[in-house]
Amino acid sequence: PIFEGLPQRGGRGQGCDSLAQTQRTKLQHRRARINQQINKEMRMRTGAENLFRATSNHKVKETVALELSYVNSNLQLLKEELEELNSCMEPTHHGQSSLNDVPMIPLGLKETKELDWAAPLKVRRSRRWCSDPAMRAPSRNKAGLELLMEYYSQLYFLDNRFFSPHQNPGLFFHWYDSLTGVPSHQRALAFEKGSVLFNIGALHTQIGARQDRTTLQGVDCAIEAFQRASGAFNYLKENFSNAPSLDMSSSSLNMLVRLMISQVQECIFEKVLLLGAQSNFLAYLQLAQEAARVEEVYSLVHQTMAQPHVKDYVPFSWTSMVHVKAEHFKALSHYYAAVALCDCPSTSEVDFPEHEKAFLQFHVSTPEGPAPSLLLRDQEARRRLGKAHLKKAIIKHEEAMRIHSLCKILRKMDILQEVLSLAHKRSLNKYSEIDHEEDFFETAEAPDIHRKWQPLPILPGSENRIQNKGAWRSSSLKPLSHSTNGWKEVVKRRETLVIPSIY
Question: Is Acyltransferase among this UniProt entry's keywords (predicted)?
Fold first, then answer.
C-alpha cells in the first residue's frame, strides 16, 4: 500500500500525547468540546432561521424566534468560555517571583475532524485507523513538531502526484477557528495545508510559553520557538490567500507575526538581564534601551490589535496584556536609566569618551540642564536627571497596574500582579533613596529613551527536516529533508483558498 510506513493524519504514535493529561492537553480537549457545541448551536441557528423565513404561521414564528434567542444566548456563553480558554497563559515556573515571570501569550491549536484518505486515493491501508487524531494533540516538543511537519510534507507530495491544480481530492477538510471556534469546511487541499501550517506555528508558541525563562537555556529555547512561530505565520500570510477563517486572514496573521516578534524581543531583554553580571554605566544603559525596544514593539502590536478587522476578533485579555507590557517595559527603561545615572560612580577620564558617546545617543531629545559632557562629571546633575527618570517610571508602573486591573482575566493571574507590584515598589524605593528633603526644585521631564534596534531573523517553522521513507523513496520529487531552501521549496506557487462554506 502506498501509505505503508508513513504517519497518518490520525493515529497515536511518536509526537502524539492524546492520552497525556498535561495542562495544555486538558485545555485542548476543552477547546474540542466547545468547538463541537458551537458547531451544533450554529447548525440549530441556521435551521431555525430558514424555518423562520419559510413559514407564514404566526405561532410558529414566535416559537422559532424564542428558540433563536436561546441559541444566540448559548453561542454567546460558548464564545465567552472559549475566550477565557484562549486567555490561559501559564507561568514559566512556580518558584519565587522575578521580573522574568511575565507570562507569554500562546496560541491554541486549530481543531479538526478525522479524515480518511483511503477512499479518494483508492488504496488500502496496511494498518488500522485510530479513533483519536494525532493532529489534535501533538506533544509540545520536537516529536510533536516533526509529526505536523511530516504530515504537511505528505500533503505537498499528494498535491503534486495525485491532483492537478484544478482537481480537488474529493474530501471535505473540516477545521475550527482557533479563537472563535467557528467551523469551516472546504474541498481545497490548500485549506488543509494552511491549517496544518497554522498549527505548526501555534505549537511553537506553546513550546516557547512553557520555557523556564529564569535560565539562559530556557530563554534561548523561548527565543527560537517564538521566532519559528513568527516564521510559520509569516509564510502562511505570504503564500496563502482568501482565508476561510478569521485566524488565517492577512490582518490576523500580521498581528500574530508582530506579537511573536514582540515576545522574542522580550526574551532578548530577559537574556540581557540574566547576562548582566557587570553592573556598570554602559550595561545599565543597554538594559534601558532594550526595555525601550520591547515597549516599542508591544505598542505596535497594541495598535495592530486596535484595528477594525482585528479588534473584535482578538480576546480582550490579549489586548490588555500587550498594553500592560508596553507600559511595564517603558517604566523599566526609565528605571534602568535612573540606576545608570545614580548608582554608578562618576565617569573616569579613561572611560569618559566611550561613556559620553553612549550617553549622547541614549535620549531621543537632549535633557534639560547642563550639557551631557558636564552632566556625566556632575553627580548632583546626574541625580536630578535620574530622579526625573524614576518619576516617569513610577507613573508608567501605575498605568500598567491600572490597565491590569481593568481586565477580569488578567486579575486572576497572581504571578503577573506580583511582577507589576514588585517592579513598582522597586522604583518607589529607589526614588525615596535618592530624594532629598532640601530638593525645592521642580523635577524636570525626563526625555524618552532611544530604542536599541537590531533586526530579528524570522526563522522557518521548524528546524527539523523530515526524513520521508517508503512511498516517496523512488520519487523524483525531493522531500522536505532534501530541499535546499527549506520552506521555500515546499510551495512553489501561491496557494489560493476558496471562499469558505460555514455550517
Answer: no
Within 13 Å and on the Cβ side, how many CA atoms surround 172? 10
Name which of 212, 230, 256 is nearest 86 in CA terms.
256
Residue with cell 522557518: 460
Find residue 496's DSSP bridge partners.
241
| Closest listed residue to residue 221, CA positions, set 23, 465, 463, 466 | 463
From CA 230, how far away is CA 457, in angstroms rounded? Answer: 10
Q: How far apart are CA 199 and CA 178, in angstroms?
A: 9
Q: What is the mean pLDDT of residues 175-184?
A: 85
Residue matched to cell numbers 475566550: 83
- Kindly report the number of other CB atoms within 10 A of residue 349's CB atom: 7
**DSSP assignments along 167-224, one per residue:** ---S-PEEEE-TTT--EEEES-HHHHHHHHHHHHHHHHHHHHHTS-TTSHHHHHHHHH
Task: Concatenate the DSSP letters of all residues of 326-385 into one string.
Answer: HHHHHHHHHHHHHHHHHTSPPPPTTTHHHHHHHHHTTBSSPPSSS-HHHHTT-HHHHHHH
Tell me how far the alpha carbon of residue 444 is from its chain's centroid: 38
* Burial grade of 441 (CB within 10 A; 0-12, 13-18, 19 or more): exposed
Q: How far apart are CA 497 and CA 242, in angstroms?
A: 5
pLDDT at residue 295, rounded to an integer: 95
Contacts for 475 with CB less than 8 Å, ≥ 6 apart: 157, 161
CB 157 within 8 A of CB 477: yes
Say how far apart CA 147 and CA 211 lie, in whole Å.
Answer: 21
| Residue pair 47/64 in contact by the 8 Å Cβ criterion | no
In angstroms, rounded to a whole number, what is the distance separating the alpha carbons of residues 193 and 199? 10
* pLDDT at res. 439: 67
Task: Give residues with Cβ within 8 angstroms of 279, minimum separation 6.
Answer: 343, 344
The three cell numbers of residue 355 are 561613556
Helices 379-405, 316-342: crossing angle, 10 deg rounding: 170
Least confident of 185-189, 296-300, 445-449, 468-472: 468-472
- Picking from 401, 403, 427, 416, the residue whose alpha carbon sits closest to that of residue 97 is 416
> CA 91, CA 95: separation in Å to the nearest integer?
10
- Round to whole Å and give the CA distance between 207 and 203: 6
- Per-residue model confidence as pLDDT tens digits over 111-161: 887 766 655 555 434 333 333 355 667 887 888 888 888 888 888 887 777
Which amino acid does the sequence have at 3? F
DSSP for 398-411 reads HHHHHHHHT-HHHH
Q: Is 121 in a helix, a strand, or coil?
A: helix
